[in-house]
UniProtKB/TrEMBL annotation:
Species this chain originates from: Microbacterium aurantiacum
Name assigned to this protein: Magnesium transporter MgtE
Record field: transmembrane: 289-307, 313-333, 365-385, 391-415, 427-450
Entry membrane topology: Multi-pass membrane protein
One Pfam short name: MgtE_N
Amino acid sequence: MTPEQTRALDDRVLAIEQALSADDLPATSSLIADAPTHEVVAVIERLDARRRAVVYRLLPKQRALEVFEDLPASLQGDLVDALQDSEVAAVFADLDPDDRVRLLDELPASVAPRLLRGLPVDERTLTAAVLGYPQDSIGRRMSPEYVTLRPSVRVSDALARVRSRVRDAETVYTIPVIDDARTVVGVISLRDLLGGADDDTVGALMSEPHTATATDDAEDAARLCADLGVLALPVVDSEGRLVGILTIDDAVRILEQEESEDAARQGGAEPLRRPYLSTPILRIVRSRVVWLFVLAVGATLTVQVLSVFEDTLAQLTVLALFVPLLIGTGGNTGNQAATTVTRALALSEVRTRDVWRVLSREVRVGALLGLLLGVLGFAITSVVFDLQVGLVIGLTLLSICTVSASVGGVMPLLARAIRVDPAVFSNPFITTFVDATGLVIYFLIARAVLQI
């Protein structure tokens, strides 16, 4: 949003909060009546649970459904707790099957069966099919509502079929083409259908299909959809039969969630999975405290290293002045490498089998960075202190940068190899590891150069 739009939204939120505080429901209703759906969503995301439910109930039925569909699944779950059963049942029945599954994942186990029982039989069957796939698979995020065509169908008949299903399908802009065994043999766009002659067959106009398997990781399938630049990606079972479709908007949503998760873990916290202002304080604390304990325990390695080299520090106290500089530089170098490689993994630019190539590149990158920083550190330290201390700092920067970049580049690949989120192995753990090893390198070089 532009600064002007942000200010307008902030003013609207403030006005709504003031109206709610004064229990002025007519004023609140008028404030949200003319607001675009995305603004109403933004307003609801910034309110507490009670006010969120009040604002939602003031929306007309159709508008309420639009807003509900655009809310994060976590806030949808909060609203389910606040609304009456009849209100929840009406909204739940109007959701698409994949959106229902996202909501069910956020609800207590005791609530989900009750909501499912209230669905019509056909909708319950579609939803249950999506629920049957593993939690992080694309099958869990696909839509089972789609239009299919056969290769032998004429364009005129195909368009008639699309028109008859346009309100029920998730999308009609990309249509899978299947054979008698429901195997995907091609895809055809609505544009190609409209541009074809009435007597042309679908098979003559269709293109080669790209598909994802229902058990594939959701992020991998979403990345494939985005990389191909397609509006929808057919999802098939292990035998190649069509079971669903992934639309580009759902793919983008998956990628945004994964980016948020990686960013949080690289910063040493768990993802909130909901807007910051609507997240309870205790949940924010829980998302951070475990990591802080882990990193605090890891930091004891640094303390142990300092205690081992206590005599070296006592003989030349000037060495202590450079400890923050050196471990900070090492941590930053490792984090840069880890962030770059983690991103390359997410984009499928590197694989775990590329570990030696990545290590080779990062050794050279780290050595060049260390050489540049080392020469600068040597020059400045030699002038301020003496030549020997400058040599220690220069050699240490060269060594630490080389080691840090190498470790930072390889750790995400090792994490992927053992099926751990690479972001977990990134900044926090690398910083802790490099702090300890960097100090060992520093004091060993100091002992060798200064003969202490």
